[in-house]
Amino acid sequence: MEAKDRIVLALDVDTAEEALLLVKKLSKHVGVFKIGMQLYNGIGPDIINRVHDLGGKVFLDLKLHDIPNTVASAARVLTRLSTFMFNIHAAGGREMMKQAAQASQEQADSLGVKRPLLLAVTVLTSISQKELTEDMFINGLTVEELVVKWALMAQESGLGGVVCSPQEIRPIRSSCGPDFKIVTPGIRPLWSAANDQKRITTPRQALDQGADFLVIGRPIVKADDPVAAANRIIEELEAE
Ligand code: C5P
Question: Is 36 touching ligand 1 by the criterion CB < 6 Å?
């Protein structure tokens, strides 16, 4: 995979105009555009087609979590929308993940297309060990142990990868093997501001630890020259 294809640009904006301006500017410099709840719920699914029309691939970050039948039905729809990847919560359970993977595969087969990369969200990085035990009543496991267990469950259920924090890249890579895709946010080049991200890693460190895709927003979007920022990240990823 080329370095550029590993960069997933977070389109964390409210309007189609702002999003499409970024896509136009950056579609030759990043591999994928991430559409999250803000943009999708604000302007609807047509934004996916509009990104496609400009030559961009889409990671639809809606984090589905519901009963298996409902998530499987949504997975069929998101497969018909030709997303490159989308995600569901591992906390929805094994059966939910299995049915979603199967439904997406069946839909892709009937359309004669490749199935989108289906990713599991494990433990949200905003959840601390304290919240895990005191509020979610999950005892006897560290966050990292739970993340790895859920990553393995996602893999056994037929999902293609996970979204995780940079801290968890290595343990997931060693448990789930080389083909399981790892997508990580919390990426900050040394030359950019950390903003509200706390446990950060550089693009190069994330790659060296075994990540496949790097979700990057503000270091590119808020740079004085977003194209130059994306190119600088590509150079760092390609450096020997
Ligand atoms: O601007 P920045 O590079 O921090 O954007 C990172 C993107 O990744 C945002 O869309 C953010 O919601 C998302 N994300 C994150 N940390 C997580 C999960 C998702 O930063 N743990």
Answer: yes
- 120 with 89: CB under 8 angstroms? yes
User: Which residues have a catalytic role annotated?
Assistant: 63
Find out whether the beta carbon of 166 lies less than 6 Å from any atom of ligand 1. no
pLDDT digits (tens, 9 = 90+) for 177-224: 999 999 999 999 999 998 888 888 999 999 999 999 999 999 999 999
Domain 3-238: give its CATH code: 3.20.20.70
- Whole-number pLDDT of residue 197: 83
How far apart CA 198 and CA 211 sit, in angstroms, is: 18
Q: Which residue has the least CA distance to atom 21 on ligand 1? A: 125
Domain positions in the chain: 3-238
Strand, helix or coil for residue 232: helix
pLDDT digits over 91-135, tens only?
Answer: 999 999 999 999 999 999 999 999 999 999 999 989 999 999 999
Alpha helices in the chain, H assignment, sequence order = 16-26, 37-43, 46-53, 68-80, 94-111, 129-134, 143-156, 169-176, 203-209, 218-221, 226-238
First to last CA, the chain: 16
